[in-house]
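Lab notebook page, bench 4
Experiment: in silico fold of construct C2
Operator: M.H.
Input chain length: 209 residues
Purpose: comparison with the prior construct
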Amino acid sequence: MFTPSFMTTSSPQTNNWLERVEKLFIRYGIKSITMDDVAADLGISKKTLYQMVESKDALVINVLQHHISREKATCLDLAKMAPNALEEIFIIMDSNSQEMAQMKHNIINDLQKYHREGWELIQTFHFEFVFKVIRENLLRGRQEGLYREDFDIDILAKLHLATAFSLFDPQIFPDGAYTRLELFKEYMLHYLHGIVSPKGLTYLKKKLS
């Protein structure tokens, strides 16, 4: 999971205007950002904004759909770049680090409470596409001898997804106790140490040294 403006004109008629709104949501949370805030950031009138999207709910859905489409393409491209399964995880971690560092802890809560359709969209993305990516990485790691053979791939992939969502639970990790990036990196290292084989552990230690 998203900073200087990438728009240089007052018109938001660009393929990337949704990314600008996404950055607002990531930085401040979804609930706290109003349609007035969005219009002001885009440099347009509120009336023009409502000609583009009929409601804040619709805006959230559009932002999430754009985000998911971009994430799918990025994830597949990064997997192709990686020379092995462990490097694939590190490349994806590096790609996600900036976004994780900026993300408000309450963004998941905002979706669950105020934008249920958006939350269901995120869940579908994670438990279908991301699950498949994790599963394929685990299979690849085994084929390369980097991951252990003695765990159930489907169970571990689902546990990985479920635990990742818990990083955004304010009851478990109150805002300010840790940075989101600290939590993300600590969890990913825990995950990696749990799946690597002796060969993978040697590779991991060299990577982290």
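Observations: The two ends are 26 Å apart (CA to CA). The chain has one domain: 56-208.
Next step: discuss at group meeting.
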